[in-house]
Amino acid sequence: MGLFDFVKGIGKKNTASAEPQPAPAASTTPAEPSAQEIANKLLGHIKALGLPVTGLSVTYNGSSDLATIKGQVQSQADREKIVLAVGNIDHVAKVDDQMTVVTPAPESKFYTVKSGDTLSRIAKEYYGDVNQYNKIFEANRPLLKDADDIFPGQVLRIPA
User: Fold this and answer.
1) Which of 56, 81, 128, 135 has a CA-to-CA distance to 100 between 20 and 30 Å?
2) Domain boundary, last residue among 106, 136, 152
C-alpha cells in the first residue's frame, strides 16, 4: 500500500506491550520512550488486537516518527486495520506499509475524523444513509470497541 500520513500526538496513548514493563523509577520528568520501546509497544498493540498476520515486524524511527510494518496477511481488510492500528497511536506520524496480502482486493477509502463527527454523520456522507454507520463500525473492529468511541484526527476505514 505504501506510505500513510497520520496526525502525530493526536492518537490514543499506547500502553499495550508484548511483555509486562517494570515500574518506572521515580523522577520529576518522565523519560521519552526509545524508538525500540515504541516499536515493541506497537507490535504488542497489534498482537493484542488479535489481527492475523504472519512474520510481523515493526520498526520505529523517532526522528521522523515513522513506523514500518512488515509481514503477511490474508486479506486487504486485515492489512488496512494493522496500518490504522499503528497510525492512530500518539507517537506515529507516518506508517510505511511493507506487508503483503495473500488475497488482494480493492483498497478501502480512509477518512480522518473531524470535530463533531459521528459514525452516522460519516455514513450519511459516504453512503447517503445514517443507518449505515454499523458498516463503518464493523469495518474498523477490533480497532473500535464502541461506535461512539471516535476522536478528531483518528483515521477510519470506509468500505465500498
Assistant:
1) 135
2) 106
DSSP-derived letter for residue 93 is S
* CA–centroid distance for 57 within its chain: 15
Dig out the grid coordinates for 137 from the structure.
Answer: 463500525
H/E run at residue 35: helix 35-49
Q: For 57-84, what is each residue's pLDDT tens digit?
A: 999 999 999 999 999 999 999 999 999 9
CATH code, domain carrying 158: 3.10.350.10
The overall pTM is greater than 0.90: no
**Which domain covers residue 96, as residue numbers?**
1-106
How far apart are the C-alpha atoms of 112 and 153, rounded to whole Å?
Answer: 6
